[in-house]
Each structure stands twice: as C-alpha cells, then as structure tokens.
Design a protein that fits this description.
It holds the Pfam family Polyketide_cyc2. The chain is of the alpha+beta class. The chain has one domain: Alpha-D-Glucose-1,6-Bisphosphate, Chain A, domain 4, CATH 3.30.530. Helix content is 28%, strand content 45%. It is built from 3 helices and 7 strands. Strands 1-7-6-5-4-3-2 form a 7-stranded antiparallel sheet. Strand 6 and strand 7 form a beta hairpin. The radius of gyration is 15 Å and the shape is globular. The mean pLDDT is 94.
C-alpha cells in the first residue's frame, strides 16, 4: 500500500470542494486525461466519475466509483483503468495548524497490475500520488486565494 501525506494551506472545506467537484478530477489525478460524465450525486456512495486515462491516441474509457463517503472528511474510491486493473484510493482530510493534512492511501485490488510485487508497485504509486497531491494543493489553495479566505 502506498501512503502519501501533504499539508495543503487552506481549510478542509476548500480541499473537499475540489474533491467534490468531479469535473476537476483530471486536473489533479495523474493519468486521468478527461472527464466524460459525472453522476449528479457525486461524491455520494455508489456514484461514478466516467473518465479516460492514458495519452491520446492510447486512451482507455473507464470509471471511478465512490465506495464510502464522509463529506468533508473521507473518500474511498475504486479507480478503474482496464486492462491494467483497479485500485482502491482513500483520501482523508484532517485540519491541522496551517491548513489541511491530506492522507492518500492506494493499492491495486485486481487485474494484471496486481501481479507486480508490492515492493515494486508501492514506490511507483507513491511517486504518482505525490504529484496528484501537489496538483490538489494547487487547485484548493488557488481557489481559496481567489476567494480571499485561505
């Protein structure tokens, strides 16, 4: 399992606002290239993001499903990108001095990518998620700065 943590210099509400806007998903998730549709009740449990992953022209259409949601605090997702497989991604927000600590846990749950040994795949996932959290921070902090309420 890959563990990544980042403190984002804004409130948990501002970070959650980015996570709760499914149309922003490809702006912060490394590998997601475009959104095709977002369920109206996103991010409620059972709702889906219909996205594409990859680099054109090698693009795969798939989806990400919310498995569990605690609004403003926690999101558990099942990210699909077949044929490589599926991964569970958990995002937890915690208010800390100076902003919001975001913990991101991820591991492959099924598909061919699961045969890659954990000691090999975990650092690769962590590397990607470091960039994803950096992008999430840019979005949340810039939105807060535009609104003047950090």
């Amino acid at each position: 399992m890959s563990h990544n943590t980042r403190v984002i210099a804004t409130t948990p509400d501002r970070v959650w606002a980015v996570l709760a806007d499914g149309w922003l998903y490809p702006l912060w998730v490394v590998g997601a290239t475009r959104m095709r549709e977002v369920d109206d009740d996103w991010p409620a449990a059972g709702s889906l993001l219909h996205h594409s992953v990859g680099v054109w022209p090698l693009v795969i259409n798939d989806n990400t499903e919310v498995l569990e949601c605690e609004p403003g605090r926690r999101l558990l997702l099942r990210a699909r990108g077949w044929p490589p497989g599926e991964a569970d991604v958990e995002l937890t927000l915690r208010e800390v001095e100076g902003g919001t600590e975001v913990l991101m846990l991820e591991d492959v749950t099924s598909g061919p990518a699961k045969i890659v040994p954990k000691p090999v795949r975990a650092p690769l996932i962590a590397w990607r998620n470091t960039e994803s959290l950096r992008r999430l921070a840019f979005l949340a902090e810039r939105r807060a700065a535009r609104r003047g309420d950090g």
